[in-house]
Amino acid sequence: MEIENLLSLIKAVSESELTGLKYEENEVKIHLTKKQDQVHVVAAGQAAIAEAPAGGPMAAPAQSATVQKEEPEAAAPSAQSIGKIVESPLVGTFYTAPSEEAEAFVSVGDTVKKGQTLAIVEAMKLMNEIESDYDGTIVEIYVENGQAVEYGQPLFCIR
């Protein structure tokens, strides 16, 4: 896919009320999601992510396959006062355990360390581990096993 076509897709999503778009051409797969006037581009098969402000030029691709937030935003204002929020870094299906027979990675009341796996979000047949950004105790799990999640959706509250 040519960069001009990619920029056109980003601009179209930015200017629309869409929150996401998946596009496949030959062996190139692109997944665009939008949150608060910013478009996130995930290109599968090329292991690259780029972020572009809505309607703006595209930034240089990052080498990571996920986008992680450091600070919680106003998405869950009541939870901000009681703990730190772990948000979904991508759109997909939320799973609490590595398989149907296995125990959940964490439960309410469990103590977790930074970098510990909390759950999995499946996107485009890829299992993406969701790791804790914080040390603390799981106060609340906002999502049910098998539920679809959006980019930036609160998943866990850690205090």
UniProtKB/TrEMBL annotation:
<protein>
    <recommendedName>
        <fullName>Biotin carboxyl carrier protein of acetyl-CoA carboxylase</fullName>
    </recommendedName>
</protein>
<keyword id="KW-0276">Fatty acid metabolism</keyword>
<comment type="pathway">
    <text>Lipid metabolism; fatty acid biosynthesis.</text>
</comment>
<keyword id="KW-0275">Fatty acid biosynthesis</keyword>
<feature type="region of interest" description="Disordered">
    <location>
        <begin position="54"/>
        <end position="79"/>
    </location>
</feature>
<feature type="domain" description="Lipoyl-binding">
    <location>
        <begin position="83"/>
        <end position="159"/>
    </location>
</feature>
<keyword id="KW-0443">Lipid metabolism</keyword>
<dbReference type="GO" id="GO:0006633">
    <property type="term" value="P:fatty acid biosynthetic process"/>
</dbReference>
<dbReference type="InterPro" id="IPR000089">
    <property type="entry name" value="Biotin_lipoyl"/>
</dbReference>
<dbReference type="InterPro" id="IPR050709">
    <property type="entry name" value="Biotin_Carboxyl_Carrier/Decarb"/>
</dbReference>
<dbReference type="InterPro" id="IPR011053">
    <property type="entry name" value="Single_hybrid_motif"/>
</dbReference>
<comment type="function">
    <text>This protein is a component of the acetyl coenzyme A carboxylase complex; first, biotin carboxylase catalyzes the carboxylation of the carrier protein and then the transcarboxylase transfers the carboxyl group to form malonyl-CoA.</text>
</comment>
<dbReference type="GO" id="GO:0009317">
    <property type="term" value="C:acetyl-CoA carboxylase complex"/>
</dbReference>
<keyword id="KW-0444">Lipid biosynthesis</keyword>
<dbReference type="Pfam" id="PF00364">
    <property type="entry name" value="Biotin_lipoyl"/>
</dbReference>
<dbReference type="InterPro" id="IPR001249">
    <property type="entry name" value="AcCoA_biotinCC"/>
</dbReference>
<feature type="compositionally biased region" description="Low complexity">
    <location>
        <begin position="54"/>
        <end position="65"/>
    </location>
</feature>
<dbReference type="InterPro" id="IPR001882">
    <property type="entry name" value="Biotin_BS"/>
</dbReference>
<keyword id="KW-0092">Biotin</keyword>
<dbReference type="GO" id="GO:0003989">
    <property type="term" value="F:acetyl-CoA carboxylase activity"/>
</dbReference>
